[in-house]
Design brief:
This protein has four helices and eight strands, in the order βαββαββαββαβ. The chain is of the alpha+beta class. β2 and β3 form a beta hairpin.
Length: 135
């Protein structure tokens, strides 16, 4: 799974600008998280047509798009399950750049993890891995 992280000004129109630009090209947003930090906002999204979406976002004024691979894993939907994963990474000395719960259901939760050591991280969670975005 590939994620696109967007750094933009923290203004009322950023989310509308991103989502409208993608909608005009019939790109479906599958996951969207946005947080503000003072004068800036960081938006992380995944879409159904990654390459096209990245090109569109890179053309938007005053927005910087950063891409990353995300490892998709399945974990139990119970208190402490995420802590167990975080401890695996800590003990292996692998820093997680981001971790997001992307879906929850009766049979568990799916989480997307990004790290600067993708190969090592994939080996670390091979028992839980669903997939990884293309390199």
């Amino acid at each position: 799974m590939k994620q696109i992280s967007i750094i933009s000004k923290n203004d009322a129109g950023a989310i509308a600008e991103i989502s409208t630009a993608l909608a005009k090209h019939d790109i479906n947003i599958e996951d969207f998280v946005s947080e503000s930090f003072g004068k800036h906002a960081v938006t992380i999204l995944s879409v159904d047509r990654y390459d096209e979406a990245l090109k569109i976002i890179q053309r938007l004024p005053e927005m910087k798009a950063i891409t990353e691979d995300a490892i998709l894993i399945k974990i139990e939907d119970k208190p402490g399950a995420l802590a167990q994963i975080a401890l695996r990474f800590k003990e292996a000395g692998i820093s997680m750049q981001s971790i997001r719960i992307v879906d929850r259901g009766d049979h568990g939760s799916f989480a997307a993890i990004s790290t600067d050591q993708t190969e090592e991280a994939m080996a670390l969670v091979k028992d839980l891995k669903i997939g990884v975005g293309p390199r």
